[in-house]
Design a protein that fits this description.
Structural class of chain A: mainly beta
Number of helices of chain B: 0
Radius of gyration of chain B: 13 Å
Distance between the termini of chain A: 35 Å
Number of strands of chain B: 11
Structural class of chain B: mainly beta
Strand content of chain A: over 45%
Shape of chain A: globular
Largest interface: A-B, 26 and 22 residues
Oligomer: heterodimer
Order of helices and strands of chain B: EEEEEEEEEEE
Largest sheet of chain A: 7 strands, mixed
Distance between the termini of chain B: 41 Å
Number of strands of chain A: 11
């Protein structure tokens, strides 16, 4: 097991385009989290899944954002109609219930 | 409102010069206090979890402690490879992590 894997590592997109990121968690981890981090700030919680159920969404997760975790394995985060303010590092993490979360290397999104 | 405040924002140490990083928190229903290390352009790397006041954990040159209002990350005789941003986070009753803005540590050879 090589840890949490995120793809792509970097994405440059034009404003208004849709983008999708993928996260493969540590196998057997039943919780999967998405965070967003901007320069000089700590990660901010977006949403989390327990198995395939999305249990919580932050106020930061506007209607343009959607996350899925089909079959409780990998997860995707889609951003529709990207805006410049969406430029950030998008981090995925996974854990067992009530244990520490392990983060992936993130996807750096730049909206131009 | 949940809040995690880290100080100082940045810290420069000479190699071998010990110091402490502070994390003060007001998190409702705190289930745990977490420390992570983050290198530039990478995801946070888990260091410690503390669950109750008085608890201490150590790993190599790092020791984390917890009181009812704050946590400290003590760095003993740091080396240049300890240079990184250290993030503190409270785990809320909702199970997600509420992060501070981090302390950027630079250790000069």
């Amino acid at each position: 097991d090589t840890g949490v894997s995120q793809d792509p590592r970097h994405k440059i997109t034009k404003r208004g385009q849709n983008v999708t990121f993928r996260c493969d968690p540590i196998s057997e981890h039943n919780r999967l989290y998405w965070y967003r981090q901007t320069l000089g700030q700590g990660p901010e919680f977006l949403t989390y899944f327990q198995n395939e159920a999305q249990l919580e969404k932050s106020r930061l997760l506007s209607d343009r954002f959607s996350a899925e975790r089909p079959k409780g394995s990998f997860s995707t985060l889609e951003i529709q109609r990207t805006e410049q303010g969406d430029s950030a590092m998008y981090l995925c993490a996974s854990s067992f219930v009530n244990t520490e979360a392990f983060f992936g290397q993130g996807t750096r999104l730049t909206v131009v | 409102e949940d809040q995690v405040t880290q100080s100082p924002e940045a810290l420069r140490l000479q190699e071998g010069e010990s110091s402490s990083l502070n994390c003060s928190y007001t998190v409702s229903g705190l289930r745990g206090l977490f420390w992570y290390r983050q290198d530039p352009g990478k995801g946070p790397e888990f260091l410690f979890t503390l669950y109750s006041a008085g608890e201490e954990k150590e790993k190599e040159r790092l020791k984390a402690t917890l009181t009812k209002k704050e946590s400290f990350l003590h760095i003993t005789a740091p080396k240049p490879e300890d240079s990184a941003t250290y993030l503190c986070a409270g785990q809320t009753g909702a199970n997600n992590l509420f992060f501070g803005t981090g302390t950027r540590l630079t250790v000069i050879p």
